[in-house]
Design a protein that fits this description.
With 498 residues, the protein is of the alpha/beta class. Helices cover 31% and strands 26% of the residues. Helix 10 links the parallel strand 11 and strand 12. Helix 1 packs antiparallel against helix 2 and helix 10 packs across helix 11.
């Protein structure tokens, strides 16, 4: 039994409901079911052992996902924004891949020695191929290979087996729970676990999916209004751009019931402005990792409303919520050997049936009791999980461990700071210096020394940045994660040259 059963169930329960596309003329669940079976037949004819997708989030993604599942092979969506050489290197790490690519990315695959089909060609050939008679997926087989974003190291291929993904669905989503009028807007990339999790959860709930391949704030708002979108997910950079675009005006999206965000840290000022702009929309913060098959903690609409309305609870807006059913969590000491009491900050470890922790070519990193080391610094207070950044980002200054998030969470409230990232740069005396890299909110902003003085009044002396640098933008992945290694290299070179 594999994830193909999700489409089997949806097609049986709501065969004539629109699964993909506009309310008028979209693809029904019955049509998607048939096309996926024919796509599986095509992949089998091509002797594929991996199905690779290089393209934007669109209707072909769910078709290819379930085609691969029924063919009994993994789907590997790749980051189409990577340099051509890196895309080809990732493809070559996969066994006997067949590549499906959007037209605009086929040129990037020049020199690839494997079979390439354009998106249109795959759909055309699939429509005329005999469907598979038997679902070849197995509970323990690999359903998805996702390469990590590589923000601190080279990308690793995470193996998500069918049982991991099904466990996530069964524990967090109610089958067939969506009403006929409900529609989800998908704008997260297909190579991110949130993009794939959205496909599975929306089909499991029999919700119509509308795709927005190229995000722009006004286009996003127009699509929500035109298609009567009831739920959507964005990454923090998207929400920040939407709020800036609104300029204090209400969002005016009356059908939008739920707006989820995740994928990176959400600056609290952005969230507070968004809560004001989307007054009638329920906000959901979803925290998860590729290795955990998507969400493991949720801060729901009621949590947001209560925290936003009560100044005494406002700090909870920095939380990622409560651990979802089926997942256990522990906060451990830096060496992983001691479980810390509530309220203390350490490293987050998680365990559950949806947790993979398995990497292509490197095996599993789960400990003997099935616990996965997330490498995220965190604490739990009153049942709420607070993430404090990656352990790899820790700055060691004069022998003291400093989490950048401690400083970032304060500096983001400076009225001249639009975005800030705190990094460590080499220092002969202290080991590392604290450097705050700021994207200013306007051209007329405080100078570096004024901002350092402002920080000194609000932070311990050891947390006050040694250097403040202004930049036009921070290097981020498409899902909003800061690429710290790029920033450290760039800023270190600039400071050394200066």
């Amino acid at each position: 039994m594999g994830i193909a059963m999700v489409l089997d169930m949806a097609s049986a329960a709501a065969p004539d409901r629109i699964a993909l596309g506009p309310r008028a003329g979209g693809t029904t669940y019955r049509q998607l079911d048939e096309l996926a079976s024919r796509g599986a037949g095509l992949l089998a004819e091509l002797h594929a052992r991996h199905a690779v997708f290089v393209g934007v989030n669109g209707p072909v993604l769910p078709t290819l996902m379930f085609s691969a599942a029924r063919a009994g092979i993994p789907l590997a969506p790749l980051n189409y924004r990577l340099p051509a050489a890196q895309v080809l290197e990732l493809i070559d790490r996969l066994d006997e891949p067949v590549i499906v690519a959007d037209d605009e990315y086929i040129a990037k695959l020049a020199g690839c020695r494997h079979r390439i089909l354009s998106t249109a060609e795959f759909l055309r050939l699939a429509s005329t191929t005999a469907p598979v008679e038997v679902d070849a997926s197995e509970d323990g087989g690999t359903a998805i290979v996702l390469f990590t974003s590589g923000t601190t190291s080279a990308p690793k291929g995470v193996l998500l087996r069918h049982r991991h993904l099904l466990s996530y669905l069964i524990n967090t989503v109610e089958f067939g729970s969506a009403g006929a009028e409900q529609a989800a807007l998908l704008s997260t990339p297909p190579y991110h676990i949130a993009g794939l999790g959205a496909v599975l959860s929306n089909i499991y709930s029999t919700r119509r999916m509308v795709h927005l391949p190229d995000f722009a704030p006004q286009r996003w708002l127009d699509t929500v209004r035109a298609e009567g979108v009831t739920s959507a997910m964005v990454v923090p950079t998207m929400l920040a751009r939407i709020v800036d675009h609104l300029g204090g005006a209400p969002a005016d999206v009356p059908t939008l019931e739920s707006l989820a965000y995740g994928g990176a840290r959400m600056p609290r000022p952005v969230l507070e402005r968004a809560l004001g702009a989307f007054g009638d929309t329920g906000f959901v913060n979803a925290y998860g990792l590729t290795e955990t098959s998507s969400t493991i903690a949720v801060f729901g609409p009621d949590d947001h409303r209560e925290a936003f309305a009560n100044p005494a609870l406002r700090g909870r807006l920095a939380s990622t919520g409560k651990i979802v059913p089926g997942v256990d969590a522990q906060i451990r000491s830096e060496d992983g050997g001691r479980v810390l009491p509530e309220g203390e900050t350490g490293l987050l470890w998680v365990r559950g049936a949806q947790v993979s922790g398995e990497y292509m070519g490197n095996g599993s990193v789960l400990d003997a009791d099935g616990w996965f080391p997330t490498r995220d610094r965190a604490r739990i207070e009153d049942g709420y999980l607070y993430i404090g950044g990656r352990a790899d980002d820790t700055i060691i200054r004069g022998g003291e461990n400093i989490a950048p998030a401690e400083i970032e969470d304060v500096m983001v409230h400076h009225h001249h700071v639009r975005e800030v990232a705190v990094i460590g740069t080499p220092d002969d005396e202290w080991g590392e210096r604290i450097c705050a890299v700021i994207v200013p909110a306007s051209k007329d902003h405080d100078d570096a020394e004024s901002i350092r003085n402002w920080c000194r009044e609000r932070l311990r002396g050891s947390r006050t940045p040694d250097d403040v640098v202004f930049v036009d933008e921070l290097p981020r992945t498409p899902t909003g994660k800061l690429v710290r290694r790029d920033l450290v290299e760039r800023i270190t070179a600039d400071l050394t040259a200066g």
